[in-house]
Amino acid sequence: MRAALIDPTAPGHLAVTDVADPVLSPNQALVRVKAVSLNLGEVRRARREAAGTHLGWDLAGFIAQAAADGTGPAEGSRVVGIVPAGSWADHAAVETRMMAVLPDRVSFAAAAALPVAGLTALYALEQGGQLLGRRVLVTGASGGVGLFAIQLAKLSGATVTALVRRESQSDLVRGAGADHVVCGERATGAVDHGPFHCILDSVGGEVLADSLQLVDRGGILVNFGVSAGETATVDVRDFFRVGRARMYGLYLFTEFGRRSACDGLGVLAGLVADGALDPHIAAEGRFDEIGILAERLFNREISGKAIVHIA
Fold this sequence. Notes:
The protein is an alpha/beta fold. The protein has two domains: 2-116 and 259-309, Medium-chain alcohol dehydrogenases, catalytic domain (Quinone Oxidoreductase, Chain A, domain 1, Alpha-Beta Complex), CATH 3.90.180; 128-249, Rossmann fold, CATH 3.40.50.720. Helix content is 27%, strand content 28%. It has ten helices and 15 strands. The strands form three sheets. Strands 3, 4, 5, 6, 7, 14 and 15 form a seven-stranded mixed β-sheet that branches. A six-stranded parallel β-sheet has the order 10-9-8-11-12-13, sandwiched between helices. Strand 9, helix 5 and strand 10 (180-183) form a beta-alpha-beta unit. The longest helix has 13 residues, at 261-273.
């Protein structure tokens, strides 16, 4: 089968080549992959890991071989799923607890956008509990997670403030439902719209430090990324003075011990089928163009999701 492996000499450090078919465990189904999405974390890994490494988290396709243990969807079922690595290929071995059946109204492309970005947004917002009538701040709001978070927070009844780096991204996040938009490299401009019951931060660095000062009493800041830097200088006393505020570090694959990917993907796919959630696909390409799309995503030329179609 074909797979996209790390190749430092290729565009985006990715090249499509022939590899052996995956070997299945009893709790895994063989998925014929029809579409995958690219995430910033993956395209960054392509630049620092060893040549020949097989990457890829998100996928959508159909069951080519059902799991031997009898769990999961039947052969021929349309599914969306997530794997720790290896989705960028013609076929992938997927644990049945890490996939959900797709409604007929959801395309493979739309489904492929859901796993990492959609589940991260969903599980991060769940840390905030009841959001009806609450204020939510989303940093890095023009990215894949951010756009899902804005929509899901609005569906939950929250008032949403979106932080973006450039003015040109304002219309995008407003279109996703943001009530207020703040532009800049810092979160201090959001102070007029806070304090916030729930803050979702994917930026880290100074934005994380700023955001800690914007959490409301009893609120929570959920960090799941450090796109601007891994180090933040924080005035801890100010954070403590808020009272009962919390900070939560979210790593998606750990979250599956709390709520299964199957469950979350089912919720997201249902919302897409009902027209309540838009995956915001910003770029699409063929499998042999995966490196070009990865390069564009790495260079921040794509706001939203980048989808690769596997013929």
